[in-house]
Amino acid sequence: xxxxxxxxxxxxxxxxxxxxxxxxxxxxxxxxxxxxxxxxxxxxxxxxxxxxxxxxxxxxxxxxxxxxxxxxxxxxxxxxxxxxxxxxxxxxxxxxxxxxxxxxxxxxxxxxxxxxxxxxxxxxxxxxxxxxxxxxxxxxxxxxxxxxxxxxxxxxxxxxxxxxxxxxxxxxxxxxxxxxxxxxxxxxxxxxxxxxxxxxxxxxxxxxxxxxxxxxxxxxxxxxxxxxxxxxxxxxxxxxxxxxxxxxxxxxxxxxxxxxxxxxxxxxxxxxxxxxxxxxxxxxxxxxxxxxxxxxxxxxxxxxxxxxxxxxxxxxxxxxxxxxxxxxxxxxxxxxxxxxxxxxxxxxxxxxxxxxxxxxxxxxxxxxxxxxxxxxxxxxxxxxxxxxxxxxxxxxxxxxxxxxxxxxxxxxxxxxxxxxxxxxxxxxxxxxxxxxxxxxxx
Length: 442
Description:
This protein has 442 residues and is an alpha+beta fold.
């Protein structure tokens, strides 16, 4: 059994140290949580999205309000408005907008952030890293224990195929709503958690419905600056309750700028390519027809990896049109003592955001000395070897063989970049209305 010790990220103000969960009194917790003691009669805002299926339909969507109130854009006015409300109410552990951030000079433009607020004075916890699929454990922290004030809104498919917003809707416990909640230890502006079917207490593993829900959220946003990410167990997920993360970053992620070589196209029009000239080996999936086609292929690939006990991370980019799948082995190397003390001393946990090129640093000396070379060296330790990656790739293509249309061994192609890549850095402040610090070059 392989284990590592790390300080867990606190995502909720109700997250306790291991072993403290038994301190609640009987007859209800009194903190307005998502459990049977507090849920009856509870209400939350509800955003009902239209099930857009065509990839091309991923533009911005406007909400239809009850009582014919003026429509407002989803992300700017709902998610960000609710997120800023929680910031004003003091629910976050620190002000992420005050964190220093810079774009590191170099070909890829890695982003470095100094986030000392994430460096907790808490005791490290042991995490098992050699088992991607683990059963849900009610005794450990899970998202039913968060306070309802940390939840921004319910996120569900519309029953009549019309986009609607209900400012106060009952929480239907029998149908287990999907919800969007704040991460109280944010990495960036608007950092939230998408928790599919929260009351079903699903363990951290991809399934078809939940992954499609994440794509719907990305498409509904229609904003290339808003990405969703997923970490499996063994790839730096620390809470074994199914969730995705999402936030705004107003510059391209370095991985979004990496070239790729087409491998194949599925019968549903999903192009699968291998990422080239990037320190972490991985695959890129690009949708051409429907969200469901894209979701099914990526879900099948993720399910193959987790069933094969391969830790992995996923980045959902370009409003749900591009998905990066990145198997990794850093935690395994760490547990085996194969990571240098120099890298371990940085306390960087290379999850989806770090692997994609957003380096969250906890020490000022690491931030001041940040370079593309240092970022590359860290991420090279995350990547599977070429031989192991070829084995994992073969597993994936065997799992999705029924949907493969053609194989392509042509030369590497530099695929069309998403709109985000062409966005000038000067627009960083304008995007988030001054709430997010601008990226600065060094």
